[in-house]
Amino acid sequence: MSTTDRYSKPQIVLHWLIALIIIFEWVSGDGMGRVFRARMDSGTIGLEGGTPHVWLGSIVFVLILIRIVLRWVQGAPGALPGSSALMTKAAEWGHRVLYALMIAAPALGALAWYGGVNAASELRETVANALMIVALGHAVIAIWHQFIKRDGALNRMRLSAGR
User: Structural domain tally of the chain?
Assistant: First the structure.
C-alpha cells in the first residue's frame, strides 16, 4: 500500500457517503428489533421482505468493501506533520477499529435478517452502538486536529482541497 498526502476523490466520496448512510441507518434502526421479531415469528427467512434499513445496510456493506480495496490499492495519507509515534499508532488502530465495526455491523445484520440468526441481531445492535461511539470519537479528533492543532487534517478528506 502506498502513502499519499491526501485521500483520492473516490475515497473521499465514499468516506462521506458511507458516513451519511451509517448515521441514517443508526437513526432509522430504532424499531428494527420489532420488525425482526415479527419476521422471525412469521417464519420468513431469506431474501424477501427487505426494508429501507436492510437494503441500505447491504449497500453500505458493499461500499465499505470497495473503500477498503481502494485504500489498499491507492494508499492513505501518512502521519500528520508533528504527530508523535503514539498519535500515529492511535490513528492507525482507530481506523482499524472503525473498519472492523463498519464491516461487522452490516454483516451481523445480514446474518440476522437473511439467515434468521437471533443472536446476530442482538450482537449487531451492540456493534452498531460501538460503531457510533468510535465514529463520534473519530470526528471529534478530526475536528481537534483541524481547529486546535491546525495541522490541516480535514483538508485530506475534503473534495475542494487539492486534486
Answer: 1
